[in-house]
Amino acid sequence: MGAVGQSVPRKETWEKVTGRTKYIDDNPRPGLLHAQIAVSPHAHAKILSIDTSDAWKIPGVRAVITGQYYPILTGSPLADRPPIAIDKVRYYGEPIALVVAEQEYMAEMAALQIKAEYELLPVVHSPSEAYQKDAPLIHEHLAEYKRHEEVYPEAGTNIANRTKIRKGNRQEGWNKSVHAIEVHVTVPQSDHAAMEMRCSIAEILPGGKTIIHSASQSPYVIRRAISQSFQIPLHNVVVHTPLVGGSFGGKSAIQIEYLAYLASRAVGGKAVKLVNSRELDMISSPVHIGLDATIKLGCTHEGTIAAAEILYLYDGGAYADRGAVMSRAGAVDCTGPYRIDNVYCDSLCMYTNHPYSTSFRGFGHPELTFAMERAMDLLADQVNMDPLEFRFHNAIGPGDTTPTQTLLDRSNIGDLPMCIAKLKTVIHWDDRPILEIDGHLIKVKGVCCFWKTSNTPTDAGAGAVVIFNPDGSVNLLCGAVEIGQGTRTALTQILAERLRMDDRMIAISTEVNTETDPQHWKTVASRSTFLVGNAILKAADDAIEQLKNIASIVLECSPIELDVGGGRVFFKNRSDSGIEVAKIANGYKFPSGNTIGGQVIGRGSYAMRNLTLLDPETGKGNPGPEWTVGAQAVEVELNTRDYTYKIVMAATVIDAGKVINPEFARSQITGAMSMGLSFASREAFLFDNKGVILNSQLRTYKLIRYGEQPEYRVDFIETPHLEAPYGLRGIGEHGLIGMPAALANSLSTAVGVGLNQLPLTPESIWRTVHDSV
Amino acid sequence: MPSYDTALYPMEFHVNGERRTIRVRAADTLLYILRDNLGLTGSKSGCDNGDCGTCTILVNGLPQKSCLMLGVEAFGQHITTIEGLVNSPVQEAFVQKQAFQCGYCTPGFIMNCHGLLNVHPDANEETIRVWLESNICRCMSYEEIHKAVKAVFTGSRKS
Amino acid sequence: MIPFDFDYYKPASVQKAVEWFQILHLQGKNPMYFSGGTEMITWARRNSIQPGAVLDLKAIPECNVMDFKKDSLVIGSCVTLSALSATNLFPLLSETAQGAADQTARNKITLGGNICGQIYYREAVLPLLLANSRMVIAGLKGMKEVSIHDVFFQQIRLEKEEFLVQIVIDRGYLSLPYVHYKKRQIGNVGYPLVTVAALKKDNQIRTAYSGVCAFPFRSFEIEQALNDPLLPLAVKIEQAIGKLPAPILTNAEGTASYREFVLKQTMAEAVNVLEGR
């Protein structure tokens, strides 16, 4: 029986239940210095002066620096962000100074002593406000910022990026439409809130070698960023990333690493640690993106969607970071998984005076899906079609094209109609009414569909090295970060399958070390099993070839007569005859002592193929190798007296291509579903009218806790993606994507009023119902 | 303006069954002391504000948040951290049900659950919920945790 | 992490505590009593308070009692909320205490700490207000026992060197009919949108509130309205709302208007249930 498809436990299982796991901050070391940042109390202001003299008076302080210490602009795709503010602050919580001290508490006290004077500027509170013609400018020098990837900022505005989709003919679409709806939705910014706070340790050795330890999804990007920003040769920057205590996209941005590096530089290269408090992790480090959206959708008498006109205004916050790329991802998949011939979409990343946004599980999709699927429910209602039937009728499939005019086939799109059909069974859609009333309790279901492709750079890639030990066991080296998703274990399964060996004979470290592990773009976008998996398959094939070559000499045959499996190299036609891998893994020693071959080391690498940049005027291009599609449902029980509700059930049917580890796959989906429900039902930053965040603690920023999880129903379709290892598709983010939409659709049906603003708190429902009367 | 004239307090307490004698800063929390003075990094910092439960330990058998306790308050007390658990059925159940993803909240959940098992070996669903909602798992592996906890308490009722 | 240093004292008697406090005060140490310490730690780590010395009251025997003395229940200020709930001598207090924070925090939070805290809610006060309980307070002149209504008005009013030793509740209150509602928008852990504790004595309903205003309170005017036999329920509630002692709170848990909406419902629920008992 092969390793792929088995629920093998995580390699690091016992460490995790015994507290022996070492996360970034779990290695106390003598002599380590501690950094702390002072942050802006204002959302938008000119910095008139910063007085650090009182901070210097705190005993144990070794350095105090401000933005002037090393004035650079960082950020990708658009270099618009100083690691420490220079001249002005653009969000509440922005670093304005940094202190290094002997003890953590000294650094904290010294940071509290930093005094700055400001001249307040008008605050831009939302992407819609930022889009107004007379909105205050947040970046006056937008045109001058260096661009690293495709990005289209518009100087003189608050637009950090605009992606246009022009597919078909807008007028023709409207001419065909008998029914039309328009919907506005709002998704506020919220937080990743990984349990482990961001932390980075930097050290600059006398020879110039720079060592960064960081809880990150992007160790290789840290290496590149530090190398570029501080002119250090790439090979002289070493990044270590141990097991990460949750990240959800939030640890893919490079932020705290710059600060740790500057802190170390300020004290002559000594090792300095910077760890966020929970409060700073929420407000100062990058957050989950928000969205203001307007969708107009039209369909024919038969319910065939003919036109979509879309404006997505993503809340990128004070700096563009990955918000710019997310707004592009939002354009690429702007319609949701539906066949629409005429699409007109502008998707923008707007600057606001909010914390800046970076990737969050789903990368712009949960937000656009909330908008699009609210529109779908409204239109279905207008055509008087069953909401799932309406989606089934318009589901995208082979032969159709996406908004970027990519032609779809079975391999790259999978099988959405099958997902919808299966969802119907899973949630007993046809057997029970959508809405059941019992006194003041209403039980109601809401549904939605989702899709997502990866929007990686067109050259994103990964490498892998497979090293055979003398006993035939194997060490796997690769750069995928273990953030809890089980990737590193799943990758050993992929390797075990290819080498036809016991996966327990394959070791993989918990840590990624950029000095010894081959590069992997980033552990994001549900891409690691795809990119690293493909590299591993090549490395495995390389190793197999080496094993066969040595074995062929020993067995006096041709390599093509041989096969590898079960710890042996054997004849294809006489499997009982062969040689143990252990005897040849480090070369074969003849009885005479003469040795042939050497250690078997397989190498492999893989990069994205056939991806193209998008045409700036039409959006035409190929954004990703495949889509993952699925259908979801939520059932709630609403109390019509006070609008409190209970999420009773949540369901996902997803086309996973191939499930590598069923237990991991299910927990990725269910965890993502609850995360989506948590953010849809309660999570949002609460800003006052000055742009100050009022809920920067987990006491007031609430998350779903034990006992609130719904009953989960998860099912998989397996339509192979031919380019991927064993046909797999990305699934790490997708369980989250449709949850806000399905929840909103269920609650909207329950109260009979459209609920188009997240989070769906009882108060917001009450207010909407109250206002509509 | 504080001037650090840090007086260190002699501390004697029992940690994982061993008597420990150390000197601590009065303003340091027990969490900090366990991690930085004693190297017991299994207890995690997730908020330092008593809101998330990643730092949960047992004080005289009862689960508490070590970030909400000064180290000096633990004088003479019996402290158990995740490192002090040996063959707890809770750990075994978490392994069997793979009741974690990133694992960062796991020590806190296990300590809380272990404490509950000691105090209420026959705890019902409601009691289990009330105790375990003290902890947050952001990977939201609540279903798996629920299965693990159920296995533990079903097992304890049988024996 | 608490960014400043303080001295730590753990007096073993009431007298020592007061004495040491006085000495530290004279030394300009800005001393502070604490029992559970949870709130002290959370304020100090944010640098919102800067005591130069803290006095841990947990070693004082009187602060740890939970027993009947004649016809009164005496609860020490250092008894934890979870111990209080587990022993369950005063069911309304048990239930109210059970609503604060979460279980592992309640293993540390004490009754005295909850009453004397700075956080708006201080829910454990509600049953004590309803039961006209008495507070045993230690000070420079020794111990005194006073009505809660004389020392708790929005918050505890103690002299600097005074601290709460015990709470005394007449046995007669412990078994009266009661209701307790803690309403949150969502979830089972967290501060209240509205908490209402109510009990019925001599055919009169008494109510106390947390989460409604920026302090917990019991209002005799509100009780008058709610107990007026001539008024229909809706009018009682309207009148009661008109007697609130301060503007309704708006914060992360909810705005004033939604709070008022929920408060009215909760008041009605409380009155309905207790009128039937």
TrEMBL record, chain A:
- Write down the InterPro entries for this protein, in alphabetical order: Ald_Oxase/Xan_DH_a/b (IPR000674), Ald_Oxase/Xan_DH_a/b_sf (IPR036856), Ald_Oxase/xanthine_DH-like (IPR016208), AldOxase/xan_DH_MoCoBD1 (IPR008274), AldOxase/xan_DH_MoCoBD2 (IPR046867), AldOxase/xan_DH_Mopterin-bd_sf (IPR037165), PLipase_C_Pinositol-sp_Y (IPR001711)
Pfam families to which the protein is assigned, alphabetical: Ald_Xan_dh_C (PF01315), MoCoBD_1 (PF02738), MoCoBD_2 (PF20256)
* Signal peptide interval: none
Record carries keyword Oxidoreductase: yes
Q: Which organism is it from?
A: Cohnella silvisoli
Q: Which UniProt keywords apply?
A: Molybdenum, Oxidoreductase
Q: Which residues form the PI-PLC Y-box domain?
A: 622-666
What protein name does the entry list? Answer: Xanthine dehydrogenase family protein molybdopterin-binding subunit
- In its keyword annotation, does this UniProt entry include Membrane? no
TrEMBL record, chain B:
Q: Does the keyword Oxidoreductase apply?
A: yes
Q: What InterPro entries would the database entry show? A: 2Fe-2S-bd, 2Fe-2S-bd_dom_sf, 2Fe-2S_ferredoxin-like_sf, 2Fe-2S_ferredoxin-type, 2Fe2S_fd_BS, Beta-grasp_dom_sf, Diverse_Oxidoreductases
Q: What is this protein called?
A: (2Fe-2S)-binding protein
Against PANTHER family, the record matches this protein to:
OXIDOREDUCTASE WITH IRON-SULFUR SUBUNIT, XANTHINE DEHYDROGENASE SUBUNIT E-RELATED
Superkingdom of source: Bacteria
UniProt keyword terms in alphabetical order: 2Fe-2S, Iron, Iron-sulfur, Metal-binding, Oxidoreductase
Does the entry feature the keyword Transmembrane, yes or no? no
Cite the 2Fe-2S ferredoxin-type domain residue spans from the record. Answer: 9-85
Gene3D superfamilies in UniProt: 3.10.20.30, [2Fe-2S]-binding domain
UniProt-listed Pfam families:
Fer2, Fer2_2
Concerning SUPFAM superfamilies, the annotation shows:
2Fe-2S ferredoxin-like, CO dehydrogenase ISP C-domain like
UniProtKB/TrEMBL annotation, chain C:
Q: Which SUPFAM superfamilies match?
A: CO dehydrogenase flavoprotein C-terminal domain-like, FAD-binding/transporter-associated domain-like
InterPro entries with a match to the protein in the record: CO_DH_flav_C (IPR005107), CO_DH_flav_C_dom_sf (IPR036683), Diverse_Substr_Oxidored (IPR051312), FAD-bd_PCMH (IPR016166), FAD-bd_PCMH-like_sf (IPR036318), FAD-bd_PCMH_sub1 (IPR016167), FAD-bd_PCMH_sub2 (IPR016169), Mopterin_DH_FAD-bd (IPR002346)
Instruction: List where the protein spans the membrane.
Output: none
Domain of life, per the record?
Answer: Bacteria
Q: Which Pfam families match?
A: FAD_binding_5
Q: Which residues form the FAD-binding PCMH-type domain?
A: 1-174
Q: What are the protein's UniProt keywords? A: FAD, Flavoprotein, Oxidoreductase
PANTHER family registered for this protein in UniProt: XANTHINE DEHYDROGENASE SUBUNIT C-RELATED (PTHR42659)
Query: Mind telling me what this protein is named?
Result: FAD binding domain-containing protein
